[in-house]
Input
Amino acid sequence: MQIFPIASSSDGNCTLVKTSTTSILIDCGIIYKQLKNLLSKEQLKLLDAVFVTHEHSDHIKGLNMLGKRFNTPVYINKQSYIARAHQFSNIDNRSLEAECEIQIKDLTITPFEVQHDTVNTFGFNITEEKGKVFCFITDTGNITKQNKSQMAEADVLLIECNYDEEMLRKYPGYPNYLKTRIAEFHLSNQQALDKLEEIGVETFDMIIPAHLSPRTNNPQLLWAELSKRFPGMIDKFILAPQTGPIRVRER
Ligand SMILES: [Zn+2]
Ligand SMILES: [Zn+2]
Output
């Protein structure tokens, strides 16, 4: 399995997951032109499916145009579809429900619920046949007990580190109600790192901190925090986005 978190921030999210036979996108939150530049038309043509975590624009911005060009099947929850139906006129939508496994060639995708300010938002566990498990979890205010067990199953974890708690508190550009909303529905660096400590960083092959806010987070600051909390294990971390592929070692 190869993972390409090609866009990952509060401004746009899109991750390609590939095996030798299959390629899927998780979210399409960048405009089509940018997507084509980052992945090439050939790669887009090969896509087997897109999986949508939820309907916020940083996750769906390029979806309609992608659908128009390639008619790629889009797995999206009914509530998310209805909420933005006017923006989905060209997509071939398929059903997506929590805990209902979807098989795309050699990949099994299991959606699970997370806590966000939409009717439904999902994380995914993606298992390659005779291969590794990739857990994708962003846009959640909280890691529930169930989320924690989904994460613990994974060899590779992509986890939201949206904001640094002090940076958010001090940031002058947001009104208080927005700060409260962000804190309630997104994971801070501190929350994500606490959870990693509970599960044990050593249980993962690789951890990809993702969805960093360009305004209330800072990659250097997060990296310093990771080095301090997990000395000797920093090699396991790769920050998203990445222009090149992140190759998951085979069993
Ligand atoms: Zn969102
Ligand atoms: Zn988001």
In short: The first strand starts at residue 2 and ends at 9. The CA atoms of residues 201 and 233 lie 8 Å apart. The radius of gyration is 17 Å. DSSP finds ten helices and 13 strands in the chain.
